Amino acid sequence: MFQPPSSPLAHHHSTRRYSVSDDDNQLDEVLPSSTPPRLVSSNTNNASMTAAAVTPETVIVVMGESEDDDKSVALEEEDLPPKSLKQDHNTNRGGNNNNDRHIFVTLYIMMFLALGGLTFASTRYIQAKLASNGNGNSGVASSMGGSDDVTAFNRDNIAFKTQLEAVLSDVVRSSDLLQVTSPQARAVEWLVFQDRMLTMEDLNTEENNGGDPFKVYQRYALMVLYFATSGQLWEEIPWTDNTMVHTCDFVGVDCDEKRQVVILNLYLRKLRGRIPDDLGLLTQLTSLTLNSNLLEGDIPTFLFDKLTNLESLDLSQNEFSSTLNPSISKLTNLKYLLLDQLTGLTGTLPESLKTLSNLQLLRLEQSQMKAPIFDFVPHWPKLETLDLKQSLFTGTIPTSIAEWENLKFLNMMNSRINATNLPSEIGLMSNLVEFQVWSTTADGGTIPTELGNCNQLEVLSIQGSNFVGQIPSELGRLTKLYLLLLEGSLTGTVPSELGLLTNLNYLSLALNNIVGQLPEELGNVKQLARLQVHYTDLTGSIPSGVCNDSIDITRSCSITKCDCCRNPCHKN
């Protein structure tokens, strides 16, 4: 008697398919919508059948799976119609109908075999990708045959999280990681269950065994910053989407050749809240820009204690409310310090700031801190820019200003700096490009003629109701001037030498007691776009050479003739 062999589909039921759940990134078992039929043979000795006797009536469709993979469901003997090998082909029960049925069954089985194989291959591929990208394994995370597969995948995540927390334990407070809603805990959860860039090998604490803890610290620190400062509200940089993006390719991040984060620029990104201490893990950072955000609280001391490689620090236009910690002196490499428009930053400018001998730029606009600022400047021999606009700093411009040979930009507009007498030594500042002072405390101060020696000047603004004297004709030597504002209580006439300032774009002589007419030589200043001579005692006309289609002129009504004036005149 012929015993039919087990069908190739006899083990199909042991194949499982998995998909990734949207909720927790775990593998969930997904049963196929239909399970292919399989042929099973009887295990009883009393039942037998011939090859020719296998018909569609003998095909049993098994849905689900048997309790024992090594056994198959036996056909009941009475279900098999008795047939003989010698039965005539032409009988009414045989013939061509049976042959057609055999072909149909064969095609039916082949079709489901193909579908099963395709599904199997797709599932293997998906698992392999998840395993290699998510758990640090180079191959398929688990075999495709049993209920332990899901457990194995979960165990990898748990092991990864355990190892990650172990790596961070030396640099992060454990209490932060235990608070499930803390930025630190949220960063860990993202790294474990969403991120696909860190591997188990990266968590190896031995560098010679492939470990790269610094790579872990960088990614972790940036994600803590993201969650701590309402990253979901950041402007156009959703870092949580960077699951397949290297840390160095995050928006706002730049790295060196060793793939270490050295620049972090989050200017005007709507950060809010407090800067987390974890940012101190970016120890190779040389430039940190957090300008124009909504950051609050104290300026954290870790910025000074841990980020000692910083060369540029910009915390301007935020809502910090504290004093400047003296530990800022630890930033010995600092070249650029920008703390402007921090109206909540009060107290005294720390003396330790004098130790920053590499400082090249210091911006303290609208600062509420106090100090005799010019006592600090000699300690910054490389200083090029000093912005004290609208600040509370006090002091008098010393004669030693001539020794500030690298200073290019000095802005003291509307500050409490005493500019009673601008020292003549200012004329020795050969590198000076911008000089702005607006003093209401000057008492009879004059404009030194030596300013005419500062031939690199492009911006000169001297304003204040108590400046007296005449406009120095020596200013005509400042041929690079773009802006000239001389407003106060100046007297005399307008020197014709101002006509030599051919690059001048903006000239204001308003609010002075000057008399006479504007010199015709001003017509040589072809770049002039704005002229202000209102609230003066000037008379006559605007020189015809000054007029053009685009110039904006504001004048006193005592200047009676102007062919290009569109604005009404001002009565004194």
From TrEMBL:
<dbReference type="InterPro" id="IPR001611">
    <property type="entry name" value="Leu-rich_rpt"/>
</dbReference>
<keyword id="KW-0433">Leucine-rich repeat</keyword>
<feature type="region of interest" description="Disordered">
    <location>
        <begin position="1"/>
        <end position="51"/>
    </location>
</feature>
<keyword id="KW-1133">Transmembrane helix</keyword>
<dbReference type="Pfam" id="PF00560">
    <property type="entry name" value="LRR_1"/>
</dbReference>
<feature type="compositionally biased region" description="Low complexity">
    <location>
        <begin position="40"/>
        <end position="51"/>
    </location>
</feature>
<protein>
    <submittedName>
        <fullName>RHS repeat-associated core domain containing protein</fullName>
    </submittedName>
</protein>
<keyword id="KW-0677">Repeat</keyword>
<feature type="region of interest" description="Disordered">
    <location>
        <begin position="77"/>
        <end position="97"/>
    </location>
</feature>
<keyword id="KW-0472">Membrane</keyword>
<feature type="transmembrane region" description="Helical">
    <location>
        <begin position="103"/>
        <end position="121"/>
    </location>
</feature>
<dbReference type="InterPro" id="IPR052595">
    <property type="entry name" value="LRRC69/RLP"/>
</dbReference>
<keyword id="KW-0812">Transmembrane</keyword>
<dbReference type="InterPro" id="IPR003591">
    <property type="entry name" value="Leu-rich_rpt_typical-subtyp"/>
</dbReference>
